[in-house]
Amino acid sequence: MLIKGYGHGPVVAGESLVERRGFWANHLLTMCRDGACAERADPEWFGGDGADVDALAEILFDPGNWPVFRVSVPDGQPCPGVVVVYRNLVDEFGVDYLVGGRDMSSRLSWHELVRVADCPEPSAECVQDVSGRFLLLLPLLGGAWSEEVVRERIVADLVAVGAPEGTVGRAAGHLLGHLERRALHDSVWGSPLSGG
Fold first, then answer.
1. N or C: where does the chain have the smaller number of CB atoms within 10 Å of the terminal CB?
2. Helix, coil or strand: residue 185
3. What is the CB-side half-sphere exposure of residue 110 using CA atoms within 13 A?
């Protein structure tokens, strides 16, 4: 598998991993790395137990294999497809979002995110499940959105991928809190103290 900008790096197809217990805790909790949590999220809120999460983390964050998740849209759609790459450099982990083959320095609006996630007829090698597509791309959400609408969609999609109904509201609230904090200050703006 070749991904533009990654040369002949150790990228491997990761689409089958979205169906494994522990995947969503690993993927969605990467949004929480800013340390601004009032309450630490419990990986079990997202389905799976600690052993599931740990086992999948070994696969997702392996420096020898960088999982790639493709979210395609049919030709002619207004939004291009998205490729999500787990860039597992030693001591420099990151999740890269490539939209239309270029690194994503801006975010997707709510309407763009829904359009890509709900797009019919994804190609066979891409993430097929609509809920999985939405949650995979959720960290890209930017701009203005209705908290009630977004919360409702997050809850429905988390339940669809196996999150327990008893804690899914807390999981959705936690994710929304991080999305809202990020929306208030985007790192590309620079520090207000630096004159940027």
1. C
2. coil
3. 15
Give the pLDDT confidence of 38-64 residue by residue, as tens digits: 677 888 999 888 899 999 999 999 999
- All residues at 6 or more sequence positions from 41 whose CB lies less than 8 Å from its CB, including other chains: 29, 32, 171, 174
**70, 126 Cβ separation under 8 angstroms:** yes
Which are the contacts of 38, defined by CB distance < 8 A and separation ≥ 6?
177
Q: How many CA atoms lie within 13 A of 177 on its CB side?
A: 17
Would you say 89 and 63 are in contact if contact means Cβ atoms under 8 Å apart? yes
Q: What is the pTM of this model?
A: 0.86
- Contact (Cβ atoms closer than 8 angstroms) between residue 125 and residue 134: no
- Cα-based angle 125, 129, 130 (whole degrees, multiple of 5): 120
- Rounded Cα distance, 127 and 132, in Å: 7
